[in-house]
Amino acid sequence: MAGNDLDLDDMMNNNDNFNNEDNQNNNSPAGPSVWIFGYGSLCWYPGFEYDKCITGYVRGYVRRFWQGNTTHRGTHEKPGRVATLVEEKDGITWGCAFQVSGTLALDYLRQRECTLGGYLTDYIKFFPRLASEHSGISGEAFPALVYIATPKNDLWIGEEPIVETARQIAQCRGPSGHNVEYLVRLAVFMREELPGASDEHLFELEGLVRRFVAEANLSIGALLGSTPRRIRRDSHENVRRHVSFEFTSRVPEKRLRCLHI
């Protein structure tokens, strides 16, 4: 995938060094660990055990609800809409990274994201928001495993009018719950955990979905289901440096482009 200046071999080697240092610090008997970048439902419902969770961002991608879903948030007759990453030169996507050890989490995610969701795996540079002196997290970018959808899978929706995406989200439900829950809880995560971070696509979708739900005389609360367990993030000892949103001033100004929708 384009958009990152660190090749896959370098990322794997750096990840091994990073994980080995972290395992030595934690005296972990589980062997080498891996970091997983979550930018969708993983942000508020990982569904697996993990050692650490930290917030941060990746560059060169934007979050878009261009992937269909028939196993969690929709059906074959009425596919839901879930997030994926789409390459964009100046893009920034905020989310969180989970450090996991062993194979249980990876096996679970392979079933959840790849077998059922249609996602592929890759490594991507992750930039932590916080740096901690004793956690092994320096604030520098490190490789994280990411699950990403492409136009080659059968569930790919692709770009469509955002109003149509919002309408589908407002109407779809699957075995894991209503599609509205997926979107709204992700937007809540962004506002509560990363105030000031920008995601125009996500927040515009949320506003449209809330409008459609209200017009249907439905309650957002009733569509959210039970409240998931709160995730402790960035809970490292002796936080010494805060990486703020000032990086946005270094991102080149976006150019307007025509969208044929």
Structure explained in plain terms:
There is one protein chain. The chain has 261 residues and is of the alpha+beta class. The protein has a single domain (33-225), classed as Hypothetical upf0131 protein ytfp, CATH 3.10.490. Helix content is 30%, strand content 28%. The chain is built from 6 helices and 9 strands, in the order αβββαβββαββαααβ. The chain has helices at residues 8-26, 104-115, 162-171, 179-193, 200-215, 220-224; strands at 33-38, 52-69, 80-101, 120-128, 130-132, 142-148, 173-174, 177-178, 239-242. The strands form 3 sheets. A 5-stranded mixed β-barrel has the order 1-3-2-4-6, surrounded by 4 helices. Strands 5-9 form a two-stranded antiparallel sheet. Strands 7-8 form a two-stranded antiparallel ribbon. Helix 3 (162-171) crosses helix 5 (200-215) and helix 4 (179-193) crosses helix 5 (200-215). The longest helix is centred in the N-terminal third of the chain and has 19 residues, at 8-26. Keywords: Lyase. One of its GO terms (cellular component) is cytoplasm. It catalyses: glutathione = L-cysteinylglycine + 5-oxo-L-proline.
